[in-house]
Amino acid sequence: MSKDIKIKKGLNIPLKGEADKVLGTAERSSAFVVKPTDFKNFTPKLLVKEGQEVLAGSPLFFNKEYPDVKVGSPVSGEVVEVTRGAKRKILGIKILADKETRYAAFAPANAASMSGEDVKKRLLDQCLWAYIKRRPYGTVARPEDKPLAIYVSAFDSAPLAGDYDYILHGKEKEFQAGLDVLKQLTDGKVHLNLHRELNTDAVFKDAKGVQINWVRGPHPAGNVGVQIHHIKPLNKGEVVFTVAAQDVALIGSAFLTGKYDASRLVGVGGSSVKSPKYFKTIQGAAVSTLLNGNVDGDNNRIISGNVLTGTKVAADGYLGFFSKELNVIPEGDQAKFFITEGWAGAGLGKFSASRSYFSWLMPSKKYELDTNTNGEKRAFVVTGQYESVFPMDIYPQHLVKAIMIGDIESMENLGIYEVDDEDFALCEYVCTSKTPVQQVVREGLELIEKECG
Amino acid sequence: MKFLHTAFQNMKHPFEKGGKFEKYNKVLTAIDALETFAFTPDEVTHSGSHIRDGIDLKRTMSVVITAMIPCLLFGMYNAGYQHFLQLGVDASFWEMFQIGLIKVLPLVVVSYGVGLGIEFAFAMYKGHSVEEGYLVTGMLIPLIVPVDIPLWMLAVSVAFAVVFGKEVFGGTGMNIFNVALTARAFLFFAYPTYMSGDKIWVHEGMTNDAISGATILGDVAAMKDGLVKSADGIIQFTGANFSVSDMFFGFIPGSVGETSTLAILIGAGILLLTGIGSWRIMLSAVLGAATMGLIFNAFGSNGLMQLPFWQHMIVGGFAFGVVFMATDPVTASQTNKGKWIYGFLIGFMAIMIRVFNPAYPEGIMLAILFMNVMAPLIDHYVVEGNIKKRMNRATVKTAVVN
Question: Which residues constitute the domain of residue B76?
Answer without folding.
Answer: 24-39+56-214
